[in-house]
Write a structure and sequence with these properties.
By secondary structure, the protein is mainly alpha-helical. Helix 1 crosses helix 2 and helix 5 runs antiparallel to helix 8. The chain is elongated, with a radius of gyration of 20 Å.
Length: 203
Amino acid sequence: MTGTPGRPLSSELSEQLLSVAVDILAEEGWGRLNSDRIAARARAGKAGIYRRWPTMAALARHAIGRVALVSPPDDGGSLRADLLALADRWTHPLDREERAAASIVGAARHEEELRAGLDAALVRPLAAAVTEIAERAEARGERVDPDRIALLGSVLEAFWWQRYTAAGDGAMTPAQVEQVVDDVLTPIAVTAARTGGSVPASV
């Protein structure tokens, strides 16, 4: 956390400011996040905000980046079951934290702080979840092509970005998710191992 010399920063106020920032991002979007609105909602002084974060982008990075938007599912007993469990979130509307993250996706193309927040919230946790799912499959004796795990992660990430940027509430039907898992995700991980083919490891 950014701070300036002087009186120690209150962790309680910091949490309050971060929560308010997430609320504004989720409800109104990145374009409405500013120190005046945060201070009014939190009933705090603007000086307290800038003692912690020098810019709104730094604040948004911290507010978004401290929440993992993806986590490894419980072991479902097969690669397919684990991928279905991972993608089950797609069947639900965007929650508060996801709406906040979605609000900064466009601006993150031009703002390093916002990209870092999304990386911490989505990209790194998703990569870790995919790695864990692949390791489980290998431990069960399922034939997963290690050279395609990065591709699987990239495709999953693309679906997540689509969820955050598409019109509507971001939800897919269970049948649509099952089709994506069966027709796209599972074949990425296992096809090359079965055929012995050579496929690029990334897109």
